[in-house]
Specification:
Layout lengths: L17 H15 L4 E7 L5 H14 L3 E6 L2 E2 L2 E2 L3 H13 L1 H8 L3 H4 L18 H16 L5 E6 L6 H13 L5 E8 L9 H9 L4 E5 L5 H12 L5 H11 L3 H13 L7 H8 L7 H13 L3 E2 H8 L3 H13 L3 E3 L5 E4 L2 H9 L3 H17 L6 H14 L3 H17 L3 H15 L4 H6 L23 H15 L2 H15 L5 H17 L6 H11 L6 H17 L3 H17 L2 H17 L3 H18 L2 H17 L3 H17 L3 H17 L3 H14 L3 H17 L3 H15 L6 H17 L3 H14 L6 H17 L10 H13 L6 H17 L5 H12 L4 H16 L4 H21 L2 H14 L14 H5 L3 H11 L4 H8 L3 H15 L4 H10 L15
Parallel strand pairs: 1-6, 1-7, 2-5, 5-6
Antiparallel strand pairs: 3-4, 8-10, 9-10
């Protein structure tokens, strides 16, 4: 029962147990139909049996059932006779006094054995049938009470039940036949050893098909997380969930106690009430068995038999007898391989360990360490270093512990166990001053952190320095996510370096601080990088110098791209090659490649990035490969080669997942979302953006995902969702570390939302901020969409009187800004033409020729949404003062635009198309198919030209036509030229319009989606 062990904190949220609760609820339904139900609920102590029963009871009460609870009470080795039934019947009488009295009428004297309140017992007969009679009367009493209403009788802690209670329960389970009744009982499965008196009853009930067994297992990690969230009233940190899940093994009661301990700061990690509970059975063991339990408790989660023999100090026969006693008491278990022993539950081991005296604990750990040093084969080889370090540390022997802990930290790093490495290195710092000087002098640098500079002396004679430990710890903290601890370590290291005159080490630590400051949202990291640059300036080439230049180049690429960034990247590659810093070289080459693409040299830049990706994969450098999977597709998208980027991104998802590169995976998801948006696959784009939010550890990739979702929502006209995602993106990205790739994207969406909501002045204010900050060189992929959004907002509002003020000035500022942005790729040349056309429209001077040029530019690209938008503008211009031929062309353009809008769910575009068609009285349904003559023959087109025209009509490029028809791109180009001549049109868009106007390709012929 709950009162037996006090729980300080219980989650108000019921977690998990869906299947178990469904079983109970199904039983309730059957009982309500008149079929009595019997259930046994088993599970280890603290796993949540009582909570499950309480939740079921609450649900049953909501359904109109009456619930009576009773629990067994342990006093010594025996339980109180009939205690759970007495409690339950008392509750039933209290809830249904009249019904209970009627059901018990005439049998009160016998029933007083269970419920003394019914009257005085005369003593009656004490014969063989006396108990059977009482059992029968009890069964009939329950059936009568439950005749007209559903009744639930719940009995808890059956493992403590007296014999009479067990017999009565068995009788009820066997004989209940009528009534709307549920009888259930709980018991501790882990307490039922071979000689437990409940064991025969469970075996008997197992043979009854009418008894349902419900086994309550431990929580998984997600369920522990939800339980902690309920207890703490806040979402717990993942590291806290991991720690408590590991220590509790998913036991709900232990999770509660550990949560209390975490909030109250218990030094040992266990509260007294839990420790007392766990130690009860241990204290019942013989002295030698308790001694062995204490030895095992300090040995670790599992102790090998040979190691235990070496440490316990008992004769082998005595040790075996002690182990047998502990195993029979269910305190210890033999390991599955039969080679050692462990505690049944990890918290039992902690309780025994916490009960040790300080000197006793140190002595045991020293004996473990000495035994392991004497014979390393006592434990598995892959555990020896870690366990030896732990034993010496807890033995409080600095001279032995310091070298052992350092060896273990190297082992942890080799396994990528950075959190464990940090913990070990912090122990080394703690032990440093306590260790004798001669021990420290014998230590040698075993491992160097990244490009942390070696001493330049003979490693065989130069001792390890405290500063070297700080360097290892700083990186371990950064890699494990313990950035605050790492920042404090770098501060301590730089303080020690103030008087040493060691610029390389100081520069290295300043680079670490730059990364940590950015990750902790304390700044953009440039001040720290600038300090590092000053420290290495003029020094001979070194790995540190190369890393400083690489970091500066990467920072500049993201914050201030331009000639200086390109120069830094080239220097970083050169320095890295000179000193053989391969990983730094590969990283610098990725930066160099991206800067080349952005500076107008896409082919050499992309070739560089492709080569780095292949080299990183071949040489097994996951960090560099992960970065290549992010940056290479991004640059491909930047020059309009989006379809080429998608398979690389999909490959990158698999790679980053395989190697656990969560932030890289999140960036890949975000970039994939952008690419899919451009290609007109908006549903997939939204899914990819959600992926970035799901897996990202850092704020920035999550901000990227939120921006993608905002972009999709804006395109679909869901302005509240767009605004919500925009706010989320701003929150993720913060203001401490502005980058053009973020600020310009945020401004584009901000202007788009403001314009859609009719807030032109707000859109202009956002534009003014962008222009005041400037659009740096190399950021044309972000700058053109911002200018386009602002130009479109001006053009769409030209009829509004309130927009007239300052319009000319805004238009001129946009034209001036556009002159400064590069158009070094077809995609951005098309955007430049589009911006110019929108500004002309804003002045009311645009014509069909203005927009024909833009449509032709976008027809060469794979941007269906953009193409549909400019087709709408061309249709609008054609309808302004045009004749019948222009009207027909406009109708076809509108039908093409509507097809894309419908496919994407772009409601604003669809609305604009429908409104223009309505004003022009144009039907948006396809033109009727001509059946009396073949228009293809009438136009003089060959069958091959017909195939080509069909693909032109759905927006295919020459390359795509060639791929689909198995011809060369050059042949496809010749066919397109011939078609334009035969149709008498100037561009592909006009050819597509003619094909649709003449009904050359009926609906369903060819590609379904008309993307352009």
């Amino acid at each position: 029962m709950l009162g037996l062990v006090e729980t300080k904190s219980v989650s108000p949220v019921f977690v998990g147990r869906t299947e178990e609760l469904q079983t109970l609820n199904d039983a309730l339904v059957r009982a309500a139909a008149g079929e009595p139900q019997a259930l046994l609920i088993g599970g280890e102590a603290g796993v949540g049996k009582t909570r499950l029963v309480e939740e079921f009871a609450t649900a049953a009460c909501r359904e109109g059932a009456v619930v009576a609870l009773g629990g067994c009470v342990e006093i010594g080795a025996d339980g109180l006779p009939f205690a759970p039934f007495s409690t339950a019947l008392r509750a039933l009488r209290r809830e249904l006094p009249d019904d209970f009295a009627a059901a018990a009428a005439g049998q009160e004297e016998e029933l007083t054995r269970l419920l003394p309140e019914l009257g005085e017992s005369s003593g009656g007969r004490h014969d063989e049938e006396g108990m059977a009679r009482l059992f029968e009367l009890t069964a009939r009493l329950l059936e009568r009470v439950a005749a007209d209403r559903t009744v639930v009788v719940a009995l808890e802690d059956l493992h403590w039940a007296d014999a009479s209670t067990r017999h009565l329960l068995a009788y009820l389970f066997r004989t209940l036949r009528t009534g709307r009744l549920v009888v259930l009982a709980t018991y501790r499965a882990d307490d039922i050893h071979r000689r437990h008196p409940l064991r025969p009853l469970l075996a008997e009930l197992d043979r009854l098909r009418t008894v349902l067994r419900v086994d309550v297992g431990r929580f998984n990690r997600d369920e522990v997380g939800r339980q902690l969230a309920g207890i703490l009233a806040t979402e717990p940190e993942p590291t806290q969930v991991d720690a408590i899940f590991e220590r509790s093994d998913g036991n709900a009661f232990f999770v509660e106690e550990l949560a209390v301990c975490a909030t109250e700061g218990c030094g040992t990690g266990l509260t007294d009430s839990l420790r007392d509970l766990l130690l009860v059975r241990v204290e019942r063991l013989t002295d030698s068995a308790q001694r062995v339990a204490r030895v095992v408790a300090e040995g670790g989660s599992t102790v090998e038999y040979r190691l235990l023999t070496a440490v316990a100090g008992l004769a082998e026969d005595d040790l075996i007898e002690a182990l047998r006693a502990a195993v029979n008491a269910n305190i210890l278990l033999a390991t599955p391989d039969g080679d050692g022993y462990r505690f049944r539950h990890s918290l039992v081991r902690e309780a025994v360990s916490d009960d040790l005296l300080p000197g006793e604990r140190s002595r045991l750990n020293r004996r473990y360490a000495e035994a392991l040093e004497a014979d390393p084969t006592l434990v598995p080889a892959d555990e020896r270093i870690m366990r030896l370090a732990s034993y010496w540390y807890h033995a409080h022997h600095p001279a032995k512990a310091l070298p052992a802990v350092l060896d273990a930290s190297v082992e942890a790093r080799c396994r990528h166990a950075y959190s464990e490495q940090l913990r070990l290195l912090e122990r080394a710092m703690e032990l440093w001053d306590a260790a004798p000087e001669d021990v420290r002098d014998r230590l040698r640098p075993i491992d160097y952190t990244e490009v942390y500079p070696p001493c330049g002396c003979d490693p065989a004679t130069t001792p390890l320095r405290y500063l070297d430990i700080l360097a290892e710890a700083a990186v371990a903290g950064r890699l494990s996510g313990e950035r605050e601890r790492a920042l404090k370590i770098t501060k301590r290291a730089l303080h020690l370096l103030e008087d040493e005159g060691d610029p390389l080490r100081a520069a290295w630590f300043w680079v670490q601080r730059s990364r940590l400051v950015q990750a902790l949202a304390r700044g953009d990291g440039w001040r720290e990088l600038g300090t590092a640059q000053q420290l290495v300036r003029g020094l001979p080439p070194s790995e540190v110098h190369a890393e400083v230049l690489d970091t500066v180049a990467n920072w500049s690429m993201l914050h201030e791209p331009g000639p200086d960034a390109l120069s830094a990247a080239e220097s970083a590659v050169e320095y890295a090659r000179m000193v053989g810093a391969r990983e730094t070289e590969l990283n610098a080459r990725i930066t160099l490649g991206a800067l080349l693409v952005d500076s107008g040299s896409p082919e050499p830049g992309l070739a560089e990035m492709y080569e780095v990706k292949q080299r990183a994969l071949a040489e097994g450098v996951p960090g560099v490969a992960g970065r290549a999977y992010v940056n290479l597709p991004s640059e491909l998208d930047a020059v309009g080669r989006t379809r080429e980027a998608v398979p690389i991104l999909q490959e990158g998802l698999a790679y980053t997942r395989k190697y656990g590169l969560l932030d890289s995976e999140a960036w890949v998801w975000a970039n994939l979302s952008e690419a899919l948006y451009s290609l007109g696959r908006w549903d997939e784009a939204a899914d990819a953006a959600t992926g970035a939010l799901r897996v990202g550890l850092s704020a920035k990739p999550q901000g990227g995902g939120a921006m993608c979702l905002a972009h999709v929502a804006l395109g679909r006209g869901d302005l509240p969702e767009a605004a919500r995602q925009l706010a989320a993106a701003r929150a993720h990205l913060g203001t401490h570390d502005p980058m053009p790739q973020h600020t310009l994207l945020l401004s584009r969406i901000t202007i788009g939302i403001a314009a859609a909501e009719g807030r032109l002045l707000d859109a202009r204010a956002e534009l003014a901020q962008v222009l005041a900050t400037g659009i740096p060189p190399g950021t044309q992929r972000y700058g053109w969409p911002v200018l386009l959004a602002a130009a479109t907002a001006e053009a769409d509002s030209r009829a509004l009187p309130a927009a007239a003020e300052n319009r000319a000035e805004v238009i001129q500022r946009l034209r001036d800004a556009a002159k400064k942005i590069a158009t070094d790729a077809p995609i951005w040349l098309a955007h430049e033409q589009w911006v110019r056309a929108e500004l002309t429209r804003a002045e009311g001077r645009d014509t069909a020729d203005t927009w024909s040029e833009v449509v032709t530019a976008f027809e060469r690209l794979e941007r269906p949404y953009d193409l549909a938008r400019v087709r709408l503008r061309l249709a609008e211009a054609l309808l302004t003062g045009g004749g019948d031929e222009e009207r027909d062309r406009a109708g076809e353009l509108l039908r093409l635009a509507r097809a894309v809008a419908d496919h994407l769910g772009a409601r604003p575009l669809a609305h604009s198309v429908a409104l223009l068609a309505q004003r022009a009285r144009l039907a948006l349904s396809p033109a009727p198919e001509r059946r009396n003559a073949d228009p293809v023959e009438a136009l003089g087109l060959t069958s091959r030209e017909r195939d080509v025209l069909r693909l032109v009509a759905v927006g295919r490029t020459n390359r795509q036509i060639a791929e689909e028809l198995f011809i060369s791109p050059k042949t496809a180009s010749v066919h397109v030229s011939n078609i334009l001549g035969k149709l008498g049109v100037a561009g592909r868009g006009e050819a597509a319009a003619v094909a649709h106007r003449l009904g050359l390709f009926p609906t369903g012929d060819g590609d379904r989606m008309v993307a352009g």
